[in-house]
Amino acid sequence: MSGAEDPPARAAPQAGSAVAIASFGMRLPTLQDRGARYGVFFATYLYQGLVAGFSLTALANHLAAQGVSSAEVGVHFAIAGLPWTVQPILWGPLVDRASGFAMGRRRAWSVLAILGCHAALAGLLVPDARALGALGGVFLVHSTFAALLDTACDRMVMDHVPPGELGRMSACTRAGFVAGTSLGAGLFGWLLAAYGFGFSTACLLAAAILAGLPILLVREAPGDALLSPARRPSAGGGRKVPFARFLRRLALGLRRPNALRLVALCFSVDGALALFELPFSVDLVQAQGWDAAELSRLQAGLAFAGGTLGALGIGLWCDRAGPLPALRTLFAASAAAFLATACLIAGGFAGSAGPLILGFTNVLPGLLIVALVPALMQASRGRAGAATQFEVFMAVMNLGSVAGGAASGVLAPVLPLSGVALLAGLVLVGAAALVRRPDLILPRQRPGDARSL
Q1: Which alpha helices (H) appear in 212-322, and where do they start and end?
Q2: Phi-psi region of 26 (alpha: psi -120 to 50; beta: other; left: phi over 0)
Q3: pTM of the entire structure?
Q4: Cα–Cα distance for residue pair 447/26, rounded to 1 Å
Q5: Of 290 and 243, which is predicted with more confidence?
Q6: Cβ atoms within 10 A of the Cβ of 251, count?
Q7: Do residues 423 and 279 make contact, with C-beta atoms less than 8 angstroms apart?
Q8: Where are the alpha helices (DSSP H) in 196-256?
Q9: For residue 292, what is the enclosing H or E element?
Q10: CA torsion angle for 148, 153, 159, 160 (degrees, to 10)?
């Protein structure tokens, strides 16, 4: 991929500067090992999913069962999502231009991030479940470190995964996130109802620490230190582009019309999906009489079914045929699902058809990200600031999700759920039409575009 500097030649860690692998008398894996790559990135996104399943599904449903309105829940969790919206500016250039770490060019940041995430989650042991301000603050700090972890992992994927495996790697990370989300929603939905907030958060912290172990144990490349705060002696004279010049090159890439259309696509799709998800869950609990723990388990099961075998199928499809054919089909199918959902809700079947609606609106849209990630990487690679540009696209998706979640509480008294589902369906119809014209969203590759920053 295009980096922010020419990578310096590898130098062996000096004695005393790191925890040397030889001292263990064994060879620990690196990201150059195919199995280790899939294992590390699966576990990392499993970790992210555990926290998301706890906070966005199990805890949200638990709060709804206690009578907290969707507007209150939406605002506080929207605040917690803010670091994801500024992720490219907050962490992108820092990680993209990183060099000289004995632990590896990107991995040093991922280790720092996972330790910060664990420290933030430890703060959940203090607040009460109904102290929404304190909960929002804890998840805000956690999201800040989790965004750094995500940024570092995205860089390592672009650095170490061959182009022909991007679809399968996208499926792997999606399966990890979905498995974590399903486990987090189902298990913690039950724990919150049966044992309360304090015990549930202690279990979350323990599970998060276990899921974060692979990123601490698998090195980025041979010769890297396992754990060390030291910097690697400069051996290749790597040249770092000035920050201002880096930002100018990034801005030039993002000002292209196809990039702007892709930004609009990412924002509108995630915003439309988030606009419907939370109000429908709250309606099932508060208006349709569903049990919050049962709802969490059903959401977890549906997400798991679509995000494991389904994600693998989409990933293989993307690697063989390219991401756009899969993306077109998924957008069209998701649009049809939301339009059918609007009809069911308008006909008064929101409660009885709840499982079908949840299947419509969770499984298919959940697969979109599997095909969308390789498409975004394809649109970013070969451009100045390629890695950070990809992070901009992902951050715009997060911004859309945050905006949709925040707007859902505001629109709830004004726009009926059938109208929200109809709006989401129309957005997805537009997305399917846009993806049918690859020239509108993907840049033309020119020989000079592949130069390194």
Answers
A1: 213-217, 243-254, 257-286, 292-307, 309-321
A2: beta
A3: 0.71
A4: 44
A5: 290
A6: 12
A7: no
A8: 197-211, 213-217, 243-254
A9: helix 292-307
A10: 160
